[in-house]
Design brief:
Distance between the termini: 37 Å
Number of strands: 7
Radius of gyration: 18 Å
Structural class: alpha/beta
Length: about 160
């Protein structure tokens, strides 16, 4: 028997279709209460344009699997971080030619320092593995991706930025 969690875990992200919402870490909880499926998701950032589509895809997939009563809830706390991307998700990104984000680790409690210049760091090329890459544009096809180019294989690629 297929569970609501099984179905929800297979829904793909509309902006990064190589990943499921579970791979991306935005799928926070799936519960069944009195016949109603309650799905909790956390957007990658508060203005994420894909969040409505994620909810619609979850409802559509769960309805098609025989779950007629579905509610999708948003949870903004704790805020999503790229650390929530699964290892399998990071592998899928690299296989699709998108450099996965580095792990950030636990964040300090208290005021967040304001730095208007993005940190400079080497991002390995997902095609050849070279660390000799440069950023071409801070924004790629979506706000959460940057456009980079490898100096060794000369291929452009996207990098999912650390959040």
């Amino acid at each position: 028997m297929v569970t609501a969690l099984d179905v929800a875990s297979q829904v793909r992200d509309p902006e990064l279709p190589v990943l499921t919402l579970a791979d991306l870490g935005v799928l926070r909880d799936v519960a069944v209460e009195g016949g109603r499926v309650l799905v909790t998701i956390t957007p990658t950032y508060s203005g994420c344009p894909a969040i409505e589509e994620m909810g619609a895809d979850l409802r559509r997939s769960l309805h098609a699997a025989g779950f007629p009563d579905v509610e999708v809830r948003l949870s903004l706390s704790p805020a999503w971080t790229t650390d929530w991307i699964s290892e399998d998700g990071r592998r899928k990104l690299a296989e699709a030619g998108i450099a996965p984000p580095s792990r950030i680790g636990p964040r300090a409690v208290g005021p967040v320092p304001l730095n208007l210049v993005p940190p400079s760091r080497q991002v390995p090329c997902p095609r050849c593995g070279s660390s000799r890459t440069t950023e071409l544009s801070r924004f790629g096809s979506t706000a959460c991706k940057a456009l980079r180019r490898c100096a060794d294989c000369a291929e452009p690629f996207e990098h999912l930025k650390e959040i």
